[in-house]
Amino acid sequence: MLVTLRHPSDADRVAAQLQALGLWTERLKSDTETRALLVRSDSAHVEPRAIEAIDGVSAVWIAPATHPRLDALTGAPVAVRGLRIGHGAPAVLISGPCSVESPEQVAESARVVRAAGGTILRGGAYKPRTSPYAFAGHGNRALGWLRDAADAAGLAVVTEVLSERDVEAVAEYADMLQIGSRNMQAFGLLKAAGRAGKPILLKRGMAATVEEWLLSAEHLLVAGASGVVFCERGLRSFDPSTRNLLDLGAVALLANVYRLPIVVDPSHAAGRRDLVRPLARAALAAGAHGLIVECHPNPAEAQSDGAQALDPQSLAGLADACHFGSAEQEGRS
Ligand code: PEP
Ligand code: MN
Fold this sequence. Notes:
Bound molecules: phosphoenolpyruvate, manganese (II) ion
Shape: elongated
Order of helices and strands: EHEEHEHEEEHEHEHEHEHEHEHHEHH
Number of helices: 13
Distance between the termini: 28 Å
Largest sheet: 8 strands, parallel
Strand content: 15-25%
Strand order of the largest sheet: 13-12-11-10-9-8-7-14
């Protein structure tokens, strides 16, 4: 946004008044005088009319928005089966196994998640695996096991859709479709998933900028998604000490400045269960509207991501430490 000035001598006063509204500016000089102030994109959202009303402002120029549909949803929580995720809503706990392995395993997981205060069950029926020889999920039949387990425990369902071909089937069973990190810019898949008209959990690509992430959300909204919940799950870094590098700066930016719904996945960020709880707490402190955490009734037997899966007791401990279901989370905004 560009704010032009009536007189260069107004620059200091107008800049101070804009700053008081949460707008950070840079001076644009012609010759040696400031003729206009450029409002930085990381500033607060302020109605142009409020800026035009400042004495000394001659005009406000707004660049065409790159993600207008998303911008219009600022401050609005996303509805997932009657549950709200985002600004002003209590933080949500989404949990479940990495992979749906059997009807019994996912039913037991659902009971554990429910007992811990979770409201959405996660679990992969279709799994993106780096190795073609690794367990890739039970596919379509696992969707039914997941749905039955969630219904029995009174939970909503989120699960990943890997291919355009499977969107219809996944949308039949899931309340929210997950787009995995590896597919954040698979534009054909984004279009197909958006067309299902459901809310989408959009994981950040492991090397994606925030702007690229926002534009992928715009693709989903253009195609017809009912809302987008962002999920920060860590970036690929130079350091193998943790599986990924959790970008809490981006979480704070989306939650507090852009006021877009964002949850954090400390499990894939850490890659090891002993770091999941501290990262979860840090994520909520940064403003995240919820967590997505992997758990397993018996992590030693997990067919994928066992090292980062919490056992039932640890999930209950994490939920307790993060005050899920308590007045503290209910009162968050
Ligand atoms: C997952 O949540 O199951 C998953 C594969 O995560 P990501 O896409 O973040 O790697
Ligand atoms: Mn996993």
